[in-house]
Design a protein that fits this description.
Layout: H1 2-9, E1 15-17, H2 24-37, E2 39-44, H3 46-52, H4 56-67, E3 70-75, E4 78-82, H5 89-92
Parallel strand pairs: 1-2
Antiparallel strand pairs: 2-4, 3-4
Amino acid sequence: MKDLKGQLSQTRATVHIGKRGVTEEVVNEIRRQLKDRGFVKVKIEKSVIKILELDRKEVAEEVAARVGAELLEVRGRTFILIDRKGVRVSEIERFKKGRRKRR
């Protein structure tokens, strides 16, 4: 698990929670990415924490509960969710920081 955390911490966030908060669209996108890759890295914008009046960890736990995923790590305003069925390790390399998404 520690090795997995290390690999996933090097990826870029693929979902951003903005000032509208945790909307149904955000939840659906997280579910889709979990199904496709087995993991998702989410960044919470500063405004969300002020608007929702929640701690960043509370936001992460709420999202994890809503999508049925395991909360792997919360670091700053970024958190990583993994699918309980497993992470597709081959997908991690595609989302490493500094790499452009191939089309």
